[in-house]
Please model this.
Amino acid sequence: MSFLEDNSAVMVKTRELCETIVSDGEFGQLQKKVEAFFGNDEAREMLKRVQDWGQELGQKQGAGLQLSETEVEQFEAARTELLENEVASQFMDAQQALQTLQTVVGRYVGLTMELGRMPTAEDFAAAEEGCCGGGGGGGCGCQ
Model:
């Protein structure tokens, strides 16, 4: 596929997009928050503990077992402590922002390829509503 060759217009623009993202000041700030988190053993351990515990409680519920009030209270206390840790909290916010950026860029590219043109605000709204799965047709790129 010629548009995947290093010097193709698609690859040149893809690299330009990546360079634009990396050089953006907000992206740099997000990266610093991520790096600070990975350099902080206490914050990493707190997050891992809460994630593991949450998964354990979720599995317990999924198996039809009742969670005790004490289990829920202890989990909520650990979660609150995690959210009060500035490094962990900033990491989670940064991670969410980076995931959102990746999702939005992916949606643009995906809709462009699906529609064969640059998507409009209406195209994004229709995609949000799931028009293709809900009777779709004409205005959302579904045929």
Remarks:
- The helical segments are 9-23, 25-38, 41-62, 69-84, 86-115, 121-129.
- The two ends are 26 Å apart (CA to CA).
- The first helix runs from residue 9 to 23.
- The chain is about 75% helix and 0% strand.
